[in-house]
Amino acid sequence: MNGGDIAVRIEDVAKVYRLGVREQSSDNLAGVLWNFIRSPVSNFRKYRSLYNFSDLELGAEGEVAGRQEQDNILWALRGVSFSVKVGEVVGIIGGNGAGKSTLLKILSRITPPTRGAVDIHGRVSSLLEVGTGFHPELTGRENVFLNGTILGMRHKEVAQKFDEIVAFSEVEKFLDTPVKRYSSGMRVRLAFAVAAHLEPEVLIVDEVLAVGDAAFQQKCMNKMQDVGREGRTVLFVSHNMPAVTTLCDRVVWLKQGHKVAEGPAQDIVGEYLLAGAVTASHREWRDPATAPSGEFARLRAARIVSERGELIEHCDIRERIGIQMEFEVLKDGEVMLPHFMVKNDTGVVAFVTLDHDPGWYQKPRPAGRYVSTAWIPGNMLNEGPYFVDCSLLTRHPDVVQFDEPETISFAVTGSMEEGTARGDWPGRLAGVVSPALEWSTEYSRD
Ligand SMILES: Nc1ncnc2c1ncn2[C@@H]1O[C@H](COP(=O)(O)OP(=O)(O)O)[C@@H](O)[C@H]1O
Ligand SMILES: [Mg+2]
Questions:
Q1: 178: which strand partners?
Q2: Ligand 1 atom nearest to 105, measured from its CA
Q3: How many domains does the chain have?
Q4: What is the reported pTM?
Q5: Which of 64, 96, 130, 192 is most buried, judged by most C-beta within 10 A?
């Protein structure tokens, strides 16, 4: 393949919607077919037209002339660029309205970009909103064959895959029923089965894990993992961060139509989880005058560290990490009690931990510099952002030397790998903690 091994290239893509004017989108097969006919995927044609915005003037910065027009339009995407290599599994994350679905629709040629270009090398199969790509009047069986045709497959090729698709979709009994009678769950099952089994070179999946039961979600996850392992390219939108970190090599983060960041899945998901937290993951007070301080002790720094002592901002749920404070004892002779309180983003206290290092426990300390680290084991905190209060007491009597709320923050990123609390459950797990507990079972026949 030429162009290195890039499967998907997105170049400076912008999409403008007119407010109040719902764009005609192809929610049925006829429309999708029409779009494919107009722009066959084998044809790497670039969209540079302004589509139906020819009456708007888009400046170099993408600004639109005319105040009234500005009030009536919405930039669903602005200047988004990135590329995906053949065989890569890339996640697209971001809040509601970030532009994720719009991007996938552009890649699936369901809607053209207002500006910019997309190149896709290979056959694309997409699973977008429920029912997209199905003709409601046709039966499940007929729709499977029509989708195959769209992908450029021959009747015989689809027939070879047919049983596998039906088995995966679990809708055998309704194969000869028009799709309009299907529940949304049944449609998603069949749509995913078709999209994943017709051997697309690029598989595009939007939020499939939001629908269907856990068992089916897990099946979809496994299937996407297989597709990736077979060296095919997957673009995957999800709100399920453990699924994203488990499934994806790389992640692109969108916010209000802009690309905020892209990089290794763990890093970007960690940053995304931390985005609400204004607190940094490490802090240092160089100037003693401004450092939190009492008569006997002064805080110098607080940080999150990996097992190897590196500064980190986020960690995998299975990883052991340290919360660390560096402080100065200003005068000899006091018994000190450094401690941390760890809270989640809703203010729920996960735990409080007090220093009981046998080397210093209940012992008076000489003046000098101390670094105290409390180690949080892996598989303890659930996925999400956390805030750490750093405090220190002198004992007998108890006197607060410093008590710094939300000194630092960090994020735990979830995983669906083995050895976590979730087993093979793909959905979100409630709770501040998520311990991987040992289970035992006793069984008897009666
Ligand atoms: N067909 C449309 N017509 C007008 N506005 C739309 C249309 N589709 C999406 N939008 C708007 O574009 C923005 C991005 O939407 P979308 O791509 O669906 O975001 P996401 O999938 O990340 O939640 C939102 O503000 C949404 O309301
Ligand atoms: Mg969406």
A1: 139
A2: 17
A3: 2
A4: 0.77
A5: 192
